[in-house]
Amino acid sequence: MSDIVLHNYFRSSTSYRVRIALEMKGLSYDYVPHHLRHGEHLEPAYLAVNPQGLVPALVLDDGTLLTQSLAIIEYLDEIQPVPPLLPKGPLGRARVRMLAQMIACDIHPVNNLRVLTSLRTLFGAGDQDITNWFRHWVNEGFQPLEKILASSPQTGTFCHGEAAGLADICLAAQVTSNARFGVDLTPYPTITRINAACMALPAFQKAAPQNQIDAE
Ligand SMILES: N[C@@H](CCC(=O)N[C@@H](CS)C(=O)NCC(=O)O)C(=O)O
Q1: Which listed site, 2, 15, 170, 174, has its alpha carbon 20 to 30 Å from 140?
Q2: Phi and psi of 160, rounded to 5°?
Q3: What is the spatial distance between Cα 94 and Cα 96, in angstroms, rounded to a whole number?
Q4: Closest CA to 195 of 20, 28, 76, 77
Q5: How many C-beta atoms surround the C-beta of residue 97 within 10 A?
Q6: Structural domains in the chain?
């Protein structure tokens, strides 16, 4: 039994973000899967853990609940500062948070399972409509992200310099989800290059959806 319990789902990109951070920090944790497609995250037992009915949720040994992947990752970064997931200076920190939030706040929420499900149930969307919707919102976010990354001298092997951090975690998790919807990455050479650099790192591989106990 670890001090940290992670409620999550192998395919969830926000769960993937937290798993990457845990692996990068070398923190051990108990993995509790909840099958989103089977609606397990909406059952009373899980709502008693996280009333929001979303994964990931981190439960600490004193019972403290933490939700919201970015808040969880920043907490992990503070309790285990090595390797750092944010740069030291205020401007660098703001830039990395900006890049992370372009994905976490402006792409992921509109492509979440419950949104895609509502498109079906409220508006009769079919599989192709859902795929088009998903691709549309990724492209809306990736076009400016590519421009910013490609034009900034602060971009290095990773989103910010030569070490992977919070923005890279969000980028790699989003690119992984994109694959399920066949998003064409050809227009995004910088994002593609950074994703490849991330996926060469053991933490990103170990945390990847296909390597989890609930993978299908
Ligand atoms: N802002 C939250 C989003 C969490 C979230 O939406 N998780 C998704 C999986 S990636 C989920 O639980 N979806 C369930 C649903 O949409 O019904 C975070 O960053 O942790």
Answers
A1: 15
A2: -140, 95
A3: 6
A4: 20
A5: 16
A6: 4-83 (3.40.30.10), 90-203 (1.20.1050.10)
- Tell whether ligand 1 has an atom less than 6 A from the beta carbon of residue 13: yes
57-60: strand order across its sheet: 30-33, 4-8, 57-60, 65-67
Sign of the C-alpha dihedral computed for residues 204, 135, 111 and 39 taken in this order: negative
Residue 2 has pLDDT above 90, yes or no: no
Give 89 Cα–ligand 1 centroid separation in angstroms: 30
Q: Whose CA is nearest to atom 10 of ligand 1?
A: 12
Q: What is the DSSP string of 94-128?
A: HHHHHHHHHHHTTTTGGGSHHHHHHHHHHH---HH
**Cα torsion 153, 161, 104, 130: sign:** positive
